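ok trying this again, last paste got cut off
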Amino acid sequence: MLHALMEFEFLQNAIFSGLLIGLTAPLLGVFIVVRRQALIADALSHITLAGIAASLLLSKHLTIWQNVNPIYLGMGFSAIGSLFIEQLRKAYKFFEELAIPITLSAGIGLGVVFISLADGFNTDLFSYLFGSVVAISRDDLWTILFVTIAVLIVVVLLYKELFFISFDEEQAIVSGIRSKWIHYIFILMVAIVIAASMQIVGILLVSALMTLPVAASIRIARGFKQTIFLSIMFGELSVIGGLVLAFYLDIAPGGTIVLLAAILLVGTLVWKKQLQSRQI
């Protein structure tokens, strides 16, 4: 593996991109789970799929668009979808959970229409659905690096606000925190990270990378910061382990990463149960 990593650029891109995604996805996933918005990643991933399909459709009909990376339009669609979710949450103040299935349905509808206009699935779109080690270019790596740096800066600067709003939004508003703008900034970060993660994990599985490591860490962590640390650790183990196994076994990396994350979750559940039985 080390020899191949030194020799092939696509493996370098995949490993380094995986390390970055294994950091940002669980990091934001902790706040998502605490807010009880775990399904928001599914909604935004399907909106991102619509953006990817639209970009592939444009490249088929416009010569000038053929050199544009589809991930950029996917990020644009995802960002717009995230703002749409926030507007729906306001419109359905007492039924905020409706914002997610509405956005998810719209994303699926748009994606199906764009895919049909592009004459069905092709190799590029299939790799975005399920993840592909080969599909990650050096430009994708630089994009993911930029997204990671931006997310880390925002989380560090707004950590107290994000923490406060996630646990007690009403009290945060009373304390003078501008929750409206914090919500917008956070949901935009989630949207961009989802779009950046799709080539590693795949659109259909990206939400699992945001929730499974968090679900595992919650069972054994003793505080919020420890939950973040363990979530990132489980995320990194899942991504790197999944990429290595996918390389040797010649299987889809997205599914392998998610299965490893699920195994880690089951392991923490079993370990926690054994600890509780010993204490009894």
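PB: full thing came through this time. The mean pLDDT is 82.
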